[in-house]
Amino acid sequence: MTSEAFTTCLWFDGRAEEAADHYLSVFKNSEPGRVTRYTEAGPGPAGTAITVDFTLNGQHFLALNGGPEFTFNESVSFQIHCADQDEVDYYWDRLTQDGGRPGQCGWLKDRFGVSWQVVPTELPGLLADPDHEKAARTTRALFTMTKPDIGALRAAYAGE
């Protein structure tokens, strides 16, 4: 095995290039990569993308136009660690726009069906606090939310 990091392959039904372009527009620290296209040899229409390489926040992805056989589900998701409420709002809004769907506790599905978790960086510490009552209050507050509200989570943690 080479020393290269793993590449995450995302399977799309004809929307790989559109998805890569969308993700590149959402994540500020991103880079487009190589696009491989079908030739006259097929099996897809000549000129359409087979694969699209791209990097988001240092993570390499390959979007594959594999067809309708497989779809995304929540068993695999990507966590976005957010430093503050502005970042939470930014990623939440960008990933739920144009057909994305909010879920519970910071989870959402984007318009391509990919699951994301928008996670305030301080949340895991609040949930794992050795003071079980603080952790329980924070957990109860989180369970009432779709998009995380850092102020409300801090208030619950503090018992306010």
Report on this structure.
It is a single chain. The protein has 160 residues and is an alpha/beta fold. Helices cover 31% and strands 28% of the residues. The protein has 5 helices and 8 strands; from the N terminus they run E-H-E-E-E-E-H-E-E-E-H-H-H. It has helices at residues 16-26, 85-96, 123-127, 132-143, 150-158, and strands at 8-12, 30-37, 49-56, 59-65, 77-82, 101-102, 107-109, 115-120. The strands form 2 sheets. A 4-stranded mixed beta sheet has the order 1-4-3-2, covered by helices on one side. A 4-stranded mixed beta sheet has the order 5-8-7-6, with helices on one face. Helix 4 runs antiparallel to helix 5. The longest helix is centred in the middle third of the chain and has 12 residues, at 85-96. The radius of gyration is 19 Å and the shape is elongated. The mean pLDDT is 96.
Number of helices: 5
User: Got a strand count?
Assistant: 8
- Rounded to an integer in angstroms, the radius of gyration calculated over CA atoms is 19 Å
The strands making up the biggest β-sheet line up spatially as 1-4-3-2
Strand content: 25-35%
Give the low-pLDDT segments. none
Shape: elongated
Structural class: alpha/beta
Binned, the helix content reads: 25-40%
Amino- and carboxy-terminal Cα gap: 52 Å
Q: What is the string of SSEs from the N terminus onward?
A: EHEEEEHEEEHHH
What is the arithmetic mean of pLDDT? Answer: 96
The main β sheet shows up as: 4 strands, mixed
Keywords summarizing the entry:
160 residues; 5 helices; 31% helix
Question: Would you kindly provide a brief summary of this structure?
Answer:
The protein is built from five helices and eight strands; from the N terminus they run βαββββαβββααα. It has 160 residues and is α/β, with parallel strands linked by helices.
